[in-house]
Protein: XRE family transcriptional regulator
Organism: Paeniroseomonas aquatica
Amino acid sequence: MIGWTKRGLARRLRVGQGAVKHMANGRHEIRDDFGAWLEGLAAAHAPLSPELRDFADKMGCDRGEWVRYPRGIRPLSDDEAAALRRVAEAHAAAPWPPGWVPKGEEADEAG
């Protein structure tokens, strides 16, 4: 629904592809909070057409970024813009799964 490949999810989470493959293949348990995070993002993406999913990716909505008049993309209707804004807001509100500390930010968390 979100349009992420296993490789893309691994890159976004800053983990090795093996970790995502193990979860996808059932060899590693998917925590409830991680699953809920993915389901919440999928729900935000659900109303998007394939074309709008592509726009969301190009515009950076999955990074929580929003631009009303993006360059290189056809003009958006008000409804399309609102749907893409909701996707960006969902990603901005929950950029990482609960309790997730991205690689490279562990030092920041430790203070």
Observations:
- The first helix runs from residue 6 to 13.
- The radius of gyration is 15 Å.
- Helices lie at 6-13, 17-24, 32-45, 50-59, 78-93, 106-110.
- Residues 34 and 97 are 5 Å apart (CA to CA).
